[in-house]
Give the backbone structure.
Amino acid sequence: MSHDKCEVLKWGRVAQPARCLCRASRSSARFVAPLGCLVSRQKHTLPDLPYDYAALEPHINAEIMQLHHSKHHATYVNNLNVVEEKYKEALAKGDVTTQVSLQPALKFNGGGHINHSIFWTNLSPNGGGEPKGELMEAIKRDFGSFTNFKEKLTAVSVGVQGSGWGWLGYNKEQGRLQIAACANQDPLQGTTGLIPLLGIDVWEHAYYLQYKNVRPDYLKAIWNVINWENVSSRYATCKK
Ligand SMILES: [Fe+2]
């Protein structure tokens, strides 16, 4: 298979350099490409976490991580596969009405899979602190200072009404970083065009078991586990 036909890692570059997993077995795909190879119609699979469920404690506890990954993310993956099968059938039949009716479910479950695949790699038990190098320079250029950036992304994330995500994204046309909020599981790039660098999940399932209704406390804690190496690597990649 020609690897240049694979839409691998377009959305969710994970903890390793980009690589096509067309020929990798699912069982060995620890860092599986979040969207797999669409050309081969391979079913999407739940990527393993690059750390243990308890690894982010005390900032995010093991119970949250286990449910979030093994139940919530897994459900998005399973539903995405079901929707894609139906979509494929509708395409084959030329049934445009059904194709259109499936789009909300595709957006929700596809977005859920994309977003969480990014989110896990944006976190690390060795995270926290501040970014370095080009990313830090860009943050200072576009937000004035790292403190300003942190405050702004925190405020935007806390302010999401209901369920959604706060994002740091890259505006490729303008060559600058931007902060954005997305509702529900709307994927950042698919809905705004910004390339996702850092996503903060502010659905209640991401924090309620530990922080109850106090979303701002979760937002304070999450900065201690942000994997700046991963965010920097995404930034370097999308600038190419
Ligand atoms: Fe989530």
